[in-house]
Task: inverse folding
């Protein structure tokens, strides 16, 4: 293979003119209308309802009829979710197997100054405290 020779001499890199790039950036990125996750309005409204109001609303709803309607006319995914929810409340949630691994490390740390003292010196303050509490 022959190596092609460079026909043009290497020159210093050309300096690009600084131009305001805000016009070109506006068309290519940024926030777009309708983009992103759609808001869940039910969750927003439910967060604004107090516990007492939620109880009143649930008391006025025919819950048994609602579940019958879900099982008769609802899509499969909704039927499965309703069935799981009812079983969890009736039978209780199944136990989950939890495995814990590792070891408990217990290290006793002593002050280097206290480690050099004899045991009698360490017991003296404790004995003095006991005598004061007894009197």
Result:
């Amino acid at each position: 293979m022959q190596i092609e020779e460079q026909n043009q001499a290497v020159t210093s890199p050309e300096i690009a003119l600084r131009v305001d790039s805000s016009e070109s950036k506006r068309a290519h990125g940024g926030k777009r209308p309708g983009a992103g996750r759609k808001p869940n309005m039910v969750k927003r409204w439910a967060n604004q309802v107090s516990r007492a109001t939620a109880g009143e609303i649930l008391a006025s709803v025919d819950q048994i009829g609602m579940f019958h309607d879900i099982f008769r006319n609802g899509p499969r995914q909704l039927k499965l979710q309703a069935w799981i929810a009812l079983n969890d409340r009736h039978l209780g949630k199944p136990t989950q197997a939890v495995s814990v691994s590792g070891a408990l490390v217990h290290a006793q740390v002593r002050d280097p100054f206290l480690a050099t003292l004899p045991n009698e010196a360490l017991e003296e303050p404790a004995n003095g405290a006991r005598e004061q509490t007894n009197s």
In short: The chain has a mean pLDDT of 77. The helical segments are 22-26, 41-47, 51-60, 63-73, 76-91, 112-116, 119-134.
